[in-house]
Amino acid sequence: MVEEVEAELEHACALLALDEDPHVRRKITDLVLAVLKDTKVLPPVEEVRRKVRTHEDLNPTATVAEWMTEFLRRKRKIDQTTRRSYEAHIRLYFTPCSPGVNRQAVGSGCGVPR
């Protein structure tokens, strides 16, 4: 029993050690809490490491509109007119057409639901 608890603690510490940025650690913590709530098991370290390394959104409950806004915020090297166009599309099309639609419910292929 003690060994299992120590292993879980080491697993949680390994997850938090994936990045030193407090903002990223907070997102990792939110992800861990959400996964624990749903599955009662900590997420695999390698899966979270991949998400952190590729700057994938760690919020499993993010809506499509929230994810699109976050995507645009992270985009650094785009022209100002392109940014304005993306902002308009998010505001006019994605946000009104997908209120409350969870990003995880949308597949990676052309919006096909999983």
Automatic annotation (TrEMBL):
Q: What is this protein called?
A: Core-binding (CB) domain-containing protein
